[in-house]
Write a structure and sequence with these properties.
The chain is α/β, with parallel strands linked by helices. It has helices at residues 3-16, 22-33, 43-56, 116-132, 163-175, 205-217, 236-239, 272-289, and strands spanning 62-72, 75-86, 96-102, 141-147, 181-188, 197-200, 224-229, 245-249. The chain is 36% helix and 21% strand. It has an eight-stranded mixed sheet, sandwiched between helices.
């Protein structure tokens, strides 16, 4: 690293508070991936659910389960979103910030698809956020949501995808939680050693600008690209209901995206630094949203 760049990153760490540990997030990811392929309803995902809940219980958060059974191309499947709420000082009438990601891996019969980046990295980032959030003062409620059922079983479609986020968006719309959300940021495939987060063009433009400006101020601008495209991810059901929402995704995973949805999606492709970049930006965006 060039000396001037090193000083810029050091200054950003001191000014903004680099509390997020990429090493810790990578270890959480490794433990999640060690359970093996984790499609919804599988023994492996049940073990991962127990692991996530065990980790969350060590923090000062309120844990709730959003369990449901849904129709899929392979028949009815039981799924479970895991929700961790870190209450803010503003009370029950206050606003909230929501950080989400999926923890399932795609069902790929006959293949050993571990989903280290695609499902594993978002799990690791959320668990590391849960570890440090009790030490960060915040007026707003902060929700961390682990989505089940992000992946499609067959050809991606409106009916076969985003099972967990569609279910929670509908539930929160009915109980009033949705109306209190200041911002929702979804993370997906953000552990790639060659990190390059594209501008997801379905997302809220103002929230995208806030995140990109924050990354640039922290010396992380090169990881948040100027180019963009539109994709469907777990932020979409919330966007469709009027929530200020953004998807952070690196959709260039290996040459010509060759590691995506293949048996090549393994831990050796991931970087603690990439996870730390994303985590530190998220923490400081949360702080900015409250001002």
């Amino acid at each position: 690293m060039h000396r001037s760049k090193a000083w810029l990153v050091l200054w950003a760490s001191l000014a903004y508070g680099a509390d997020f540990s990429g090493t810790s997030a990578l270890e959480y990811t490794r433990k999640a991936v060690a359970f093996g392929p984790r499609p919804p309803g599988s023994p492996a995902i049940h073990k991962l659910q127990a692991f996530i809940e065990t980790q969350l219980k060590t923090t000062r958060c309120e844990i709730s389960s959003d369990a449901f059974t849904t129709a899929t191309p392979v028949g009815p499947v039981s799924m479970q979103n895991i929700i961790a709420k870190f209450p803010g000082k503003s009370g029950s009438s206050g606003r909230s910030t929501v950080i989400t990601g999926h923890y399932d891996s795609k069902s790929m019969p006959g293949k050993v698809f571990l989903g280290a980046n695609d499902g594993g990295s978002s799990t690791g980032v959320l668990l590391e956020l849960a570890r440090i959030l009790p030490g960060i003062p915040h007026a707003d409620d902060i929700y961390l949501v682990f989505f089940d059922g992000e992946e499609a079983y067959g050809q991606w479609s409106e009916a076969d995808s985003l099972y967990g986020s569609r279910h929670l968006a509908e539930r929160w719309s009915k109980d009033g939680t949705l109306a209190k959300i200041r911002a929702l940021i979804n993370v997906d495939m953000i552990g790639d050693k060659d990190l390059g987060i594209l501008q997801e063009m379905n997302s809220s433009a103002s929230l995208r600008l806030l995140v990109w400006d924050t990354a640039r101020e922290m010396g992380y601008g090169k990881y948040f690209l100027d180019s963009g495209f539109a994709t469907e991810d777990d932020h979409l059901p919330f966007l469709q209901r009027g929530v200020n929402a953004l998807d952070l995704i690196d959709f260039d995973y290996g040459p010509h995206n060759e590691n995506w949805h293949t048996e090549k999606d393994t831990m050796d492709k991931l970087s603690a630094h990439s996870l730390e970049v994303v985590g530190n930006v998220l923490i400081n965006v949360i702080r900015k949203l409250e001002k």
